[in-house]
Design brief:
Length: 228
């Protein structure tokens, strides 16, 4: 293992028992077919649970909807990007030549996704408690307060709150296609609400952006077809 990865483990305060997980978490799809997108998918769920637990303890007086908005602000791309920069992921991310030439080391979506993949990798390497501890350490320096819920809702949060308010299951998001070359891809994402038999799609420059676009399309469909 090179010195950069050893230093990263020191910053993470986690030494991988399976170093291959660390390498994969830092590998963009433009570099290799053994890339980090599955780990990112897993890390996204671990991150949301760990942040929800953190907020449940810290903001005990906030109702569910406000907690959801605070969490949305904490797990959004901008916040994760800043945390990734603080960890020095730009120096260790593995990119294909084209992506590297186009400035991929500094692209917020790539760094945010790599951070989620790292969280997923820690979860597989040592279990939820280790991943949760990592998330708590990452957010230790991030200001968390009830006023964060006042910031405008993103489409995914708004859709989630609408469904929760009606005791429906959360939407399902699936990447149904990718367009373009590896370093300039767009993601075609499907959003499904099973109870309503609704399915909408959206396209974005990252999986996260595609999910937001699909959620926005779903909200428009709900407003047009469902009596609220």
């Amino acid at each position: 293992m090179n010195e950069g990865l050893k230093a990263l483990q020191s910053r993470l305060q986690h030494e991988f028992r399976n170093p291959n997980l660390l390498t994969r978490a830092l590998t963009h799809r433009s570099f290799s077919i053994d890339h980090n997108e599955r780990l990112e998918f897993l890390g996204d769920s671990v991150l949301n649970l760990a942040v929800a637990d953190l907020l449940f303890e810290r903001l005990s007086s906030l109702p569910e909807g406000d907690l959801s908005r605070v969490r949305a602000n904490l797990v959004k791309q901008d916040t994760l990007h800043q945390l990734a920069v603080g960890l020095g992921l730009s120096d260790v991310i593995r990119l294909g030549e084209g992506e590297a030439r186009s400035g991929g080391q500094k692209r917020p979506s790539i760094l945010a996704d790599a951070l989620e993949a790292l969280i997923g990798a820690v979860y597989l390497d040592a279990g939820f408690a280790a991943a949760q501890s990592l998330v708590h350490r990452l957010f230790k320096a991030v200001e968390i307060n009830p006023e964060m819920q006042a910031i405008g809702k993103d489409p995914k949060t708004e859709l989630q709150e609408w469904l929760q308010g009606r005791k429906m299951s959360l939407p399902l998001y699936r990447v149904v296609g990718t367009l373009g070359v590896a370093h300039k891809q767009t993601f075609d994402v499907e959003c499904e609400i099973i109870e309503l038999n609704f399915c909408e799609r959206g396209i974005g420059g990252s999986r996260r952006a595609g999910e937001q676009a699909a959620a926005s399309a779903m909200l428009q469909t709900i407003k047009a077809k469902v009596k609220t």
